[in-house]
Every structure is written in structure tokens, then in C-alpha cells.
Design goal:
It comes from Actibacterium pelagium. This protein is α/β, with parallel strands linked by helices and about 270 residues long. The chain has 11 helices and 8 strands. It has 2 domains: about 200 residues, Rossmann fold (3-Layer(aba) Sandwich); about 60 residues, no CATH class.
């Protein structure tokens, strides 16, 4: 693993391969290892960078200074961009999709294409007055409520079952359960950063300003809220294509890379020609 220093916090990241840069951003309660299969498929012709964002994997937590998670994690992206000599392809899943979207909006000239796998941009649902924002309100209240009552395992269970179906936490291996419990306070920070009126938060009216080639992906069996976010983006992004994966849930990028990754590879290759 390689390391960065961001405001005296150590950030770990993977770097593998040779060629144009690809930046991969993982979901909540995960880490850069989520992308090992994709890295293996890309590294013969691309240089792949995959950070553990603050508080996940081997990276330090961000300082609790009143700023939301994306304020700190965008600094990780900015530091990695300094290593690139040409525009990068960016791939993000869930939280990583939200971060990737924010990075592409902030530095559009630094990216060549954008792949967003169910980005959790719940603030866009709120701004659109979508009824599906209620799912996000429920999920975040379960996480924050259990943590307030000092029940981190229940917070972790509610989070994992929300995104990966009822019973997913109890069915997971012990080391996975332990990791989700250990990182659930950062999960709470992730949800807090989805509030619609935070300084620097994405705005619905600005979505159309992102003109980069964009691949939007969603599972056919995902949460209605996640599907609605992708729909909002699909309707507004001027240069986007949508892939719906039949029968897949929100966690398909981690659980079914054999289904998800071929679409990503085809898209990146097409944008590289």
C-alpha cells in the first residue's frame, strides 16, 4: 500500500499497472480491496489508483471539525490528481459514486470519463422533493439512533441489511461483521453528509453542467431511493448512458464483479479510443 498525508492524517491507497490513470472509489464500510477484480482487469493497460478514504481500510479518520465527509475526502482526490499526468477515468460505487460525482463536478478538466454505480446522492432526492427520500431518512435514523443508544452492532446490522437485504449482516462472516461494526461511526458521518443544505453540497440544478461521458449503473433489485437517484442523474446529465443490471442489488459492485465489471471495462475502453 502507498500512503498520503492529508492534514496530518495518513491515507492508504493502492496503485497498480501502467498507462492512463483510473481512479476507483469504494462504498461505505468498505475499502479499496473492493476493487481487486477490476484492478486486475485494468492494470495491463491502465494505472489504477484506489484509496481507502478517511476512516476506512488502513486510513485515519478525518478530524471532527464540523465539516462533512466530502470536504475531507475531496482532499484525498485532489492529492491523487497531483500524481496524474493526464485526465483520469473515475469509477465510484455508492459513497464512492457520490464522491466521484463531486470530484468530476469540481475538476471536470481532470477527468476523461465518469462511472457512477448507484451514487448515494440523497441530497438530490431531497432537493427534488422525491417521496423516496423517506428511505434515506429511515436508514439514517436507524444508524444514528442505535449509535446514540450505544448499540453499534445494531447500527451496523441496520445499515448492512438496508443495502444488502434483510439478514445480510447475520449471514456475513464474522470478520465482515466486525469490520462493519468498527466502521459504523464513519457510516453515520456518511449519512450526515447527505443533508441537502450543507456548504458545498451538490445541487440538483447543477447536474446538467457535468458534460463528461458518464456511465450510470443500477441494479434492477436495488432500493427505490437508489434507483431514483440514478434516474434523476440520467434525466439531467447531457452525456450519460444507463445500464440496468437485472436482479442485482445495491451491493452488486462488491458481490457480483463478474456482472458489473464488463460494463465498466467496455465503457472505459470506448472512452480511451
Amino acid at each position: 500500500m502507498n500512503t498520503l498525508n492529508i492534514a496530518d492524517q495518513q491515507i492508504n491507497y493502492r496503485r497498480s499497472g501502467n498507462g492512463p490513470p483510473v481512479l476507483c472509489l469504494h462504498c461505505s464500510s468498505s475499502h479499496s480491496g473492493q476493487f481487486k477484480p477490476l484492478i486486475q482487469s485494468l492494470q495491463d493497460r491502465f494505472t489504477v489508483f484506489a484509496p481507502d478514504v478517511h476512516g476506512y481500510g488502513g486510513s485515519d479518520a478525518f478530524p471532527k471539525d464540523g465539516n462533512p465527509w466530502f470536504y475531507h475526502d475531496l482532499k484525498v482526490i485532489e492529492a491523487l490528481l497531483e500524481q496524474f499526468t493526464e485526465p483520469a477515468h473515475i469509477v465510484g460505487h455508492s459513497l464512492g459514486g457520490a464522491l466521484g460525482y463531486m470530484a468530476a463536478q469540481r475538476w471536470p478538466d481532470r477527468f476523461k470519463s465518469v462511472t457512477l454505480i448507484e451514487p448515494v446522492l440523497f441530497m438530490l432526492l431531497a432537493q427534488a422533493n422525491s417521496p423516496f427520500i423517506a428511505e434515506g431518512h429511515y436508514a439514517t435514523s436507524m444508524v444514528h439512533g442505535h449509535l446514540h443508544l450505544k448499540l453499534p452492532e445494531e447500527a451496523a446490522r441496520s445499515f448492512m441489511d438496508f443495502w444488502a437485504d434483510e439478514g445480510a449482516f447475520d449471514a456475513a462472516p464474522e470478520h465482515v461483521q466486525d469490520y462493519v461494526v468498527a466502521t459504523v461511526s464513519r457510516v453515520a458521518d456518511d449519512w450526515a453528509g447527505m443533508l441537502p443544505n450543507l456548504p458545498g453540497t451538490p445541487k440538483l440544478e447543477a447536474v446538467s453542467q457535468l458534460t463528461l461521458p458518464t456511465l450510470l449503473m443500477r441494479g434492477g433489485a436495488t432500493r427505490r431511493s437508489a434507483a431514483a437517484i440514478v434516474e434523476l442523474l440520467s434525466e439531467r446529465l447531457p452525456n450519460a448512458q444507463l445500464v440496468e443490471m437485472e436482479g442485482m442489488t445495491h451491493m452488486a459492485a462488491a458481490t457480483h464483479p463478474g456482472v458489473v465489471n464488463p460494463h465498466i471495462l467496455q465503457f472505459i475502453d470506448a472512452q480511451s479510443n
